[in-house]
Amino acid sequence: MSDGANGSAEIALRVENLSKNFGGVKAVGDVSVTVPKGLIYAIIGPNGAGKTTLLNMISGFYAPDQGSIHLGNEDITRLNPANRATKGIARTFQNIALFNGLTVLDNLMMGRHVHMKAGVLASFLYWGKAQREEVEHRRRVEEIIDFLKLSDLRREPTGALAYGLRKRVELGRALAVEPSLLLLDEPMAGMNQEEKEDMVRYVLDVNGEFGTTIVLIEHDMGVIMDISDRIAVLDQGSKIADGTPDEVRNNPQVIEAYLGSGH
Amino acid sequence: MDGETQFLIELVTNGMLTGMMYALVAVGFVLIYKSTDAINFAQGEFCMIAAIFIASFVFLYGFPLWLSIIVVLVLMILFNVALERVVLRPMIGRPVVAIIMATIGLALMFRGLGPLLFGAETRPINLPIPDLPIIWGPLFMSPIDVLGAAISVIFLAGFGWFFLKSRIGVAMRAVADSHQVSMAMGINVERYFVIAWVLAGVVALLGGIVWGNAIGVDTQLAALGLKVFPVVILGGLDSIIGVVVGGIIVGVVEALAAGYLDPYVGGGTKDFTPYVLMILVLMVRPYGIFGKPIIERI
């Protein structure tokens, strides 16, 4: 790296002093998180700790009351969700949010939307160009379909799929965005052991093969400790710890937050 | 074939042709509902105002019909883009009823605007077609209805393909499915609202031409909006196939009522039978025949 002295080039996401209140209730208070590029970064904490609120501020669905969000070196605090997607942020939702009327293939193609250059009028008029673009996008989507082993399901409407598969399709749609930063809100929630193992493998593969920085919220401690490079712990809207899995595991504040005082 | 069967066949055919023309107006509701979740109560007035402008340009200013249609098409597109920008976009995120009220206001405005600009008399739109009825085997059809139905079929098939296959159409369905998730995918939701309103304007223009050609152009055309409401409800607000089927059902029911019930009660049954049917269907399937049942997960 030519400008290696200045480490900022290696930062994927920098969240500074972020706060969000809902009608006087503090959801997130003064949270700062720095996510280095290429890492799997977990955000954990008891229910109501503010994890999803934090994720929603990063993806642009909530406007923070205070603080700033940088993607790489760019301040994205004021961008809307659609513009953040164009900048390379993709996400999945806690309660699967697929386009249920659309097929698996069309859902994934929607993930390609940010890369579609031919404008609305152009796609009406210049069929040739729009067509060529379509073929290219379709090729990328097929790669993802192969990667996630969804080949047999590409024509199925997503509404009809089993829960674990829907989670996988949602991951696929986020991958189709080709994000530099992938936000996963409880990717393994409600899954059985086998589905969890599949999902863990996909998350690791995405991180390993494409170098995608991943920020995930998850409740399964076993999974978190296994796959995360770093972990931040939230409790009642504040960050109480961050560090490697081992550091976090042995942090007395974290133990107290999870087990309650008196233990 | 006896006269009775002949009569029935005639009623059904003409009912179906009229039904297709209803479907063309009804699809305007579907376009808006599919992408914005709102119901445009001004859809009938959109048809009316387009037809009034076309007929008036021809009769007051001597435009050729084709030129008049192109000018009004451009006007409709510009108007709908402006409408979306100025009136509807600020309402995104507000309760749907606010958008509905805005469209009702728009409807009333149009009803006043047409006569104000061009006077209230009835004018024809004369498409270049023969007056002689088309006789095909036992079928006996008016060329106006056949042309109207043909235009409907072509455009409805076009819209069907558009929503099912084209990139913009699929994106519009995605937007309708969830604004929030669409935004997370980088989809510019507002842009697809504009497209939906522009398409609704274009459909209204077609509906105005077809119906203006069939029954003449004045503010009465606006009643089409209410007239096709049973069509939309029967078919399901979000289904293009639904409006075709709903249109045909309503058209046929109307024709049968006019043919068989009117002689006993002195007329007028075709005006309310579609609504009776609508209420019956709503009791059994509240989301229409082809509509998506919305199941709330608890």
Verbal overview:
The complex is a heterodimer of chains A (263) and B (298). The radius of gyration of chain A is 19 Å and the shape is globular. Chain A is built from 10 helices and 10 strands. The model of chain A is unreliable at 1-9 (pLDDT under 50). In chain A, helix 3 runs parallel beside helix 6. Chain A has a 6-stranded mixed beta sheet with strand order 6-7-8-3-9-10, with helices on both faces. Chain A folds into 2 domains: 1-88 and 179-263, P-loop containing nucleotide triphosphate hydrolases (Rossmann fold, 3-Layer(aba) Sandwich), CATH 3.40.50; 100-176, no CATH class. Chain A is an alpha/beta fold. By secondary structure, chain B is mostly helical. Chain B has a single domain (3-119, 143-284), classed as ABC transporter involved in vitamin B12 uptake, BtuC, CATH 1.10.3470. Chain B is 74% helix and 2% strand. Chain B has 12 helices and 2 strands; from the N terminus they run H-H-H-H-E-E-H-H-H-H-H-H-H-H. Chain B has helices at 3-36, 43-61, 65-88, 96-118, 143-165, 167-177, 179-184, 189-215, 223-227, 229-235, 240-265, 269-284, and strands at residues 134-136, 139-141. In chain B, helix 1 packs across helix 6 (167-177), helix 1 packs antiparallel against helix 8 and helix 3 (65-88) packs antiparallel against helix 8. Chain B is globular, with a radius of gyration of 20 Å. The model of chain B has no long low-confidence stretch (mean pLDDT 86). Classes of the chains: A alpha/beta (263), B mainly alpha (298).
